[in-house]
Amino acid sequence: MIDDNNIQGVYFIGIGGIGMSALALYCIKKGFIVAGYDRSQSNITKTLEKAGCEIIYNDNEFDIPELFRDNKYSEKVLIIITPAISEGNRILTYFKSEGYTVRKRSEVLGDISALTDTIAVAGTHGKTTVSTMTAHLLKQSDIDCSAFLGGISKNYNTNYITGHSRYTVIEADEYDRSFLQLFPLIAVVTAVDADHLDIYGDHDTMIDAYNEFLDKIPKGGTLICNYHIRQRIIRPAGVRFFTYGDNEKADYRYFNIEKKENIYHFNIRTPDSELRNIRYSFPGIVNIENLTAATAVALQCGAGEDEIKEAISSFLGVRRRFDIRINIPGLAYVDDYAHHPEEIRACISSLREYFRGRRITAIFQPHLFSRTRDHAEGFAKILDELDEVILLPVYPAREEPLPGVSSEMIFKKMKLANKRLISLEEIPAAIDVDELDVLVTIGAGDIDKTVEPIETKIIREVGKWRG
Question: CB within 8 A of 357, min separation 6: which ones?
């Protein structure tokens, strides 16, 4: 247990990851001495350093701070790792050889989950947005919550939110079967598209893992799932079951959508009532669906309808989730974390709906060799729906290269004529601002490093036009 009275320090290997950093912030708030390793500096690691966390960026055990390196303190130190860290990591090897307690992030989250009323949001896409929305609705009501999020909330400028109620919102990650460590009182499932087949082998095995996760909901608990996947989900005995979506048979249904000056107006029907005249500025119909799931959770937790409607109107979104960075007449720039064909499909659908009739250029960085291999045809098919595509090399993350697998697999399958394959370093120099209408960067790798340079270039060029 992380709250063992003997533990004084916590060391994170892979501290810059979005899930690891949320847990590191939790430990800092708890008063632990926190340090860690990551392979590169980022905005996330800079935030942790400002909070008092000492971070090193080279895989060298001799650079570990003395409190953590001296094994006479080993019983007072907990080592937390992410699955992205390889067994060959020198820092991890050192701690294991010296007898330190090493635990996975998912195991520690499981400990926290067991001590609170956990709202676990799972799904192959949409879970970060739904969990962030859920946390916001509860924080803005009398219910309150804490939250471990898979993205940076724009409302709170963090991925870890503290609260004083019994509820904790946790993003339930299916990678490495991590979500099987959680103990949800309320579980949400947004989607079960085939993903992480490097872990599961096939789609059916992945869905089996989802149902194993849902079987951990106790009797009297609650399961809320997207109406369209209800037949893939096994309802645990004694658990209350609800669906959400746009189908007339959904228990929580959104309808009567109107868009006026980039504000959506719509209603949500619930099993007991109807929330009318909701005002919502976060772009995309898919995010109205995500909001409906969050609303269902908030109502199940006891939040009032008026509280929810007011909170919806103030929701600002999540960084890198349909994140509109620039939106001026004749030119827009959006950044999105999508890295699965279905996520990209939802992103493009939202772009087409929000920027109706405009020309869309996408810069896409595939994430993982295994995902590129498994979904090359799906990526090509959805990218063909754009007006122009700039394709970057595969971001390997935790993987070693696979023979014959590269971005060219996608590039060659695409029918779109207006396409380019370039390196990350060539962005943003390769972008001609004069030719842009709507630009979107898409991917879960280090493509985020290009966001600020792209913004800077666009602002500079726009300044010339207006000068």
Answer: none
Degrees, nearest 5: CA angle 330-452-45: 150
Report the amino acid identity of residue 77. Answer: V
| Dihedral over Cα of 382, 384, 389, 394: its sign | positive
Judged by phi (left if over 0) then psi (alpha if -120 to 50, else beta), residue 220 lies in: left
Q: Beginning with the edge strand found earlier in the chain, give each strand of the sheet holding 158-161 in spatial order.
A: 158-161, 146-153, 167-172, 117-122, 184-189, 222-226, 240-245, 252-260, 263-269, 274-280
Q: Which of 85-94, 264-273, 365-374 has the lowest mean pLDDT?
A: 85-94
Phi, psi of 437 (to 5 degrees): -120, -70
CATH 2.60.40.10 fits 323-466, yes or no: no
**How confident is the model at residue 194, as a pLDDT?**
81
Length of the chain in residues, anyone? Answer: 467
Q: Is residue 298 classed as helix, strand or coil in its secondary structure?
A: helix
Instruction: Measure the CA–CA gap between 440 and 301, rounded to whole angstroms.
Output: 36
Mean per-residue pLDDT of the chain:
93
Which tokens hold the place of 260?
């006026």
CATH architecture assignment, domain 116-313: 3-Layer(aba) Sandwich (3.40)
Q: Give the predicted TM-score (pTM) of the model.
A: 0.88
More confident call, 262 vs 20: 20
Instruction: Name the more confident of 133 and 60.
Output: 133
Largest CA distance in the chain: 67
CA pair distance 63, 56, nearest whole angstrom? 7
Domain boundaries, the chain: 9-104, 116-313, 323-466
User: 114, 178 in Cβ contact below 8 A?
Assistant: no
Q: Which CATH class is domain 9-104?
A: alpha beta
Of 326, 287, 300, 292, the closest CA to residue 433 belongs to: 326
Q: What is the pLDDT of residues 405-432, one digit of tens each?
A: 999 999 999 999 999 999 999 998 889 9
